[in-house]
């Protein structure tokens, strides 16, 4: 990992690329804004913040941006939080967490601690573009409450899961793709909500 001026410059450019303020970064890390300024000026950062530094800026830079070597997704653990990457078929099942731990699943890091039933999925296709593109990984928590406008993973008649935005208008409930080339689906008794999308994780390199 970089140190000194090189790390300070890397942090500064990551903040600019993400389009956030130092105060926003400080809030995310639970520190005061002057501490972020110190990171940039001195290139010194507490080791307890390194994993979160990488995960917080993962949507704009890769770990190599901070001088951290490449890694396999199932070998790194940000903030000690991780969830298993499931297939879209397995997402429709209530899989036992202990079974997942014992099998050879890839694990995806998360910024926050979620329920024990949370899992990750890799986006396929373009129905949720431009916000979600093929290859992005979404974190899904089956225990989160469903609200109008949230993103959900659903299945119909126990088939492969689908990813859509949940829209509630009075007594009518719909599943909306963000890409308007795809049709809106009206909720029915045949559709089951598998979980609410709470995070997106992306690696560029």
Which characteristics define this entry?
205 residues; alpha+beta; seven-stranded antiparallel β-sheet; two-stranded antiparallel ribbon
Structural class: alpha+beta
Unreliable spans are: 71-77
Lateral strand order in the biggest sheet: 3-4-9-5-6-7-8
Mean pLDDT: 84
| Computed Rg | 19 Å
Following the backbone from N to C, one meets helices and strands in this order, namely: HHHHEHEEEEEEEE
What is the percentage of strand-forming residues? Answer: 15-25%
> How far apart lie the N and C ends?
17 Å
Shape: elongated
Question: How large is the count of helical segments?
Answer: 5
Helix content: 10-25%
Tell me the number of strands: 9
**Biggest sheet descriptor:** 7 strands, antiparallel
Characterization of this structure:
The protein has 205 residues and is α+β, with helices and mostly antiparallel strands. 22% of the residues lie in helices and 23% in strands. The chain has a seven-stranded antiparallel beta sheet, with no helix packed on it. Strands 1-2 form a two-stranded antiparallel sheet. Helix 1 (4-18) packs across helix 3 (33-42) and helix 2 (22-29) crosses helix 3. The longest helix is centred in the first third of the chain and has 15 residues, at 4-18. It is elongated. Mean pLDDT is 84; it is low at 71-77.
Concise description?
Helix content is 22%, strand content 23%. It is an alpha+beta fold.
Outline the fold blueprint.
Layout: H1 4-18, H2 22-29, H3 33-42, H4 50-56, E1 82-84, H5 97-102, E2 107-109, E3 119-122, E4 137-141, E5 151-156, E6 162-169, E7 172-176, E8 185-186, E9 191-201
Antiparallel strand pairs: 1-2, 3-4, 4-9, 5-6, 5-9, 6-7, 7-8
Helix pairs in contact: 1-3, 2-3
